[in-house]
Amino acid sequence: LLAADISISTRLVTKVLRGKQLTRRERLQLTRTTADIIRIVPMLFFVVVPFMEFLLPVALKLFPNLLPSTYEHKEERDAALRRRLLAKMEMAAFLQDSVLEMSKDIKRTGYSSEDSENELVDFITRVRSGEKVSNGDIVRLAPLFNDELTLDNLRRSHLEQLCEFVGISNLGTDGFLRYKLRAHLRKLREDDYDIRREGVDSLTDSEMRAACNARGMRAPHGSGSREFMSKQLEEWIELSLGHSLPSSLLLLSRAL
After folding, report:
1. 5 to each of 83, 131, 170, how far by Cα in Å?
2. How far is residue 142's CA from residue 15's CA, in Å, rounded to a whole number?
3. Helix (H/G/I), strand (E/B), else coil: 106
4. CA distances from 36 to 9, 58, 91 (A)
5. In sequence order, what are the residues at sequence separation of 6 or more whose Cβ sits closer than 8 angstroms to the Cβ of residue 64?
6. What does the pLDDT read at residue 129?
7. How far apart are CA 117 and CA 108, in angstroms?
8. Which residues are in the Letm1 RBD domain (predicted)?
9. How far apart are CA 134 and CA 137, in angstroms?
10. Whole-angstrom distance, CA of residue 153 vs CA of residue 236
């Protein structure tokens, strides 16, 4: 599989050198294959050096993304999904508590303090009752959050949960985790433009599922799953590009 990916990526590089533009699918293919090739370099160390293969399980435990993507097993994907679900539940609890705390000490942002507090309390009540949060709710309440929920103000535990939530490694210092999350958010914003340009319907089911996972959104299987994921992505892109909502707040809102 890796050899086939390299062959395809070689043709894509040739296409770029000829001045042609890559589609979203082609760009992701090239990026993934390049990352896989880079991952092979440290893997060769375990193959060449005698007895180093015994330390490979330890290395994979510390760096779960060390193996190329073509070697990922179903069990690993299922474990990642379970971790992501747990992180989403923890992030949801954190956000709900944060909103309740903010309602007690709300700042003036164009609403009266009483109206703002009542609206936040009503919002969190509906969330806890299982009611779906609409784009209109998020846009209307976004100014009330100010800088309370930016990455710079999140504690270590919440940074780790957010990393798990979007499927990236949570190893490193607080500053490094914030850097990785910001890089992830920048990639998502660029991807939003690509998806809007090519259309959500141009994505295959697997591509749509990967896009939802990267944004911390549900990616179900079975009947009606494509329509569900398509609607989620359209709502995300509307908030991201249509209303210019901060990416960090948009990502956190997916946990509600």
Report:
1. 28, 43, 28
2. 42
3. coil
4. 11, 20, 31
5. 76, 169
6. 66
7. 10
8. 83-256
9. 5
10. 23
Quote the CA–CA distance of 38 and 142 in Å, as a whole number. Answer: 40
Cβ 66 vs Cβ 59: under 8 Å: yes
Q: How many residues does the chain have?
A: 256
pLDDT at residue 111 greater than cutoff 50: no
What digits encode the pLDDT tens for the residues 189-233?
A: 889 999 999 999 999 998 998 898 888 888 888 888 999 999 989
Q: Where are the domains of the chain?
A: 2-72, 76-253
Query: Over 90: is that where the pLDDT of 125 sits?
Result: no
Q: Helices (DSSP H) in the chain: which residue ranges?
A: 2-17, 24-48, 56-62, 74-104, 113-128, 135-145, 156-166, 174-198, 205-214, 225-237, 247-253
Q: b/e string for 128-163 if b means 16 or more Cβ within 10 A?
A: eeeeeeebebbeebbebbeeebebeebeeebbbbbb
Q: Distance of CA 138 to CAs 120, 141, 166, 240, Å?
A: 11, 5, 20, 11
* Full DSSP string of 150-211: SGGG--HHHHHHHHHHHT----S-HHHHHHHHHHHHHHHHHHHHHHHHH-GGGS-HHHHHHH
Banded pLDDT at 17 (limits 50, 70, 90): confident
CB atoms under 10 Å from CB of 55, counted, come to 12
110: pLDDT strictly greater than 70 = no
Report which of 203, 198, 159, 200 is spatially closest to residue 182, judged by C-alpha positions. 159
